[in-house]
Amino acid sequence: xxxLENFKKEKLTIDLLWAxxxxxxxxxxxxxxxxxxxxxxxxxxxxxxxxxxxxIKPENVAFSGLLFFAIIILGVVIHxxxxxxxxxxxxxxxxxxxxxxxx
Length: 103
Known about the structure:
Layout: H1 16-42, H2 46-54, H3 58-88
């Protein structure tokens, strides 16, 4: 049995500005590592891509955009629920200790 008296509760937060800056800094090398090889591998297929883009119908684009947005929102909710479930396993009051919100 773990003795909880030896633990200290400490609130930790990450500054949103720093998190966004850090996210962009991480994204730059990822784009270089994966984006440049992708571009150079597919540079000769630009004509095919151009024909595909011109054949897209506006009504399909609107539906695809809404579907994409809905999938992203659902994915964010599921992602945060997974965080909450894992953290609740280690929280004193279980899932009652977890609060969800938007910053």
